[in-house]
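Why do we bother with holo predictions? Because pocket geometry can differ from the apo form. Keep that in mind while you read this record for S-adenosylmethionine.
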Amino acid sequence: MGTMEEASTSSLNIEVGLKVNTALRFYHEILGLNNLHYGLWDNDPLTMEGLHAAQSRYTDHLISYFPESVKTILDAGAGTGETSEKLKARGYDVEALSPDPYQQYLFQKNRNVTFHLNKFQNFKPRKKYDLILMSESCQYIPMDGLFSNSINCAPGGYLLINDYFITHPDNTAMSKSGHDMQIFYQKARDYGFELLKEEDITDQAAVSLDLARSWLDRYVMPSIDLLTYSFRRKHPKLLKFASWLMRNKVKKFNDDIMLLDSEHFKRVKRYKILLFKIPV
Ligand SMILES: C[S@@+](CC[C@H](N)C(=O)[O-])C[C@H]1O[C@@H](n2cnc3c(N)ncnc32)[C@H](O)[C@@H]1O
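The structure, written out:
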């Protein structure tokens, strides 16, 4: 069992191209979230308890998509391992993969599941899986590597994707993350993948953004206002200089706030569940 000190980024064996994602680490360590996905909301209260209920419902819903023949699963982009653990508890033979050394540390500490530290597109499987699960990790994986390596990992098996895709790009930061939906469908066809089932859960997923926005308005913005107010009173010139120095970070922060607009999200993106049959 490691200590938190051992988990620090510097002490981890970070291979070339494998980095700790600080945003995901923040969600886990500071917000205490074990699931790093949007969840499936159903009139839940807009609170941490509501988020937990929505995330648990989301995983159950994903599992309902598994064809009966499925026994072995590769949880590709496994986050903190909550889903892998749940699958294992339901009797599936699960292995997990992520390129994030911090997540590897969490698996070693908390989970009794084989973990592969790698990007999915570079992973060389030692066995064939019945199903590959990409729960909000598809957007990080380049399309060609995603389809070609799915055939190596699970020929004749299934690929279950739950993620958002861009459908109406509008030149804002909102259009920057996620694969283009039409290109994704086309690539799937080019690689011989058959789309067996599809569901649009945008409305039930986007509620997470409303929750994040309400936390931001309630806690983060007033704290920033208070800090800048007292700093401006004491060091007006220094504040001006610091704002100039941090201008890129301020722009990034403002862009990130824009990403919490659920109505904008719904205009630009669709959150989908896609079950594919993988060719042999
Ligand atoms: C938003 S988190 C989702 C985590 C988890 N599946 C869940 O539903 O809570 C995205 C995950 O994808 C992983 N990831 C990022 N790039 C990847 C890649 N190229 N191949 C596989 N996983 C990747 C991240 O490290 C992280 O575990």
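Residues 21, 24, 35-37, 76-79, 83, 97-100, 103, 119-121, 135-137, 140-141 surround S-adenosylmethionine (CB under 6 Å).
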